[in-house]
Write the C-alpha cells for this entry.
Amino acid sequence: MDTNAYLERIGYHGRIQPNREVLRRLHRKHLRSIPFENLDIHLGRPIILSEKAFYDKIIKHHRGGFCYELNGSFASLLSELGYKVSMLSARVAQKGGGFSPNFDHMTLLVQLEHPWLVDVGFGDSFTEPKRLDMPGPQADREKQYRFTRRDGWTLLSRRPKGNGVWEPQYMFSLQPRKLEEFIPRCRWQQTSPRSHFRKGLVCTRLTSNGRLTLTDTKFIVTRGGRKVERPVKDPEEFAALLRRHFGIDLNDVIQFTARYLFSR
C-alpha cells in the first residue's frame, strides 16, 4: 500500500503518529472524501474482499464502496500507520425489530489509551470515533451515541441530541475477525434478492455541514439538519451528479442507468 497516495486521496496532511486526535481527523477526512456506494452490485461487478482490491478500487480508481470495502481499506491504512486495529462483526438493527445475521456489517476496534469504535462504512452514522469504555452519551453533530451491553454483545444506539428515544443501530462482538470470514455474507449482499443493497442505487458522503446522497430517483442535500430533495431527471443528470459531487466517472454509467432507471 502507498500510504501517501491513500492520505492524498482523503486530503489528509499533517502528523501521522498514532493518537486520538490524528485518528479523529483521519476518520472525518475519510468520510468526507470516500463515498459509501453500491454501484458495482448493480453493474454486475463482483466485489472482492482483499486489501489489493480495496486499494485499486478506492485509491487508484477513485471509487467508494460499502462496509466491507471501506472499513477493510481503512483498517489496512491504520495498520500501516501503526495503529492496533481489529475487524469486528456487527448485526444491524432491523425496522421490524431484531437484528440481521452475524457478519452483516464490518466495524473496527482501535486500541489507543482507550478502546475506540471506528466506522467509515455505515453511511449516515457517527462522524468521529466513539470511545467504547465510556458509559454515557457521546455527542456527534445533531445526534448522541451510546454503548450498552446485551446478551454478551455491545449495542450501539443513537438519538437526536438532547432528547428523543434511543434507537439501536447495530450490535457487535469484540472478537477480532479475519477478512475472509466476511466473504459469505458479502456474497449474499451482492446476490440475494432479499439484500437491500440490490433494491436501489445509493452514493452518499459526509460534508462539512451535512451530507450529500444520490439515489436512482433523487438527489438529497442535507445542511445543518435541513434536508432538500429533488428528482433525478435522466441518466445524464445522474452521471453528472456522480462526477461533480462524488468524483466518480464510470464510462458505462449512463448506459447502465438508462437501462436500470427506465426499464422498471
The domain at 201-262 is CATH 3.30.1120.150 (Arylsulfatase, C-terminal domain). The chain has two domains: 3-177, 201-262. The mean pLDDT is 93. The first helix runs from residue 3 to 9.
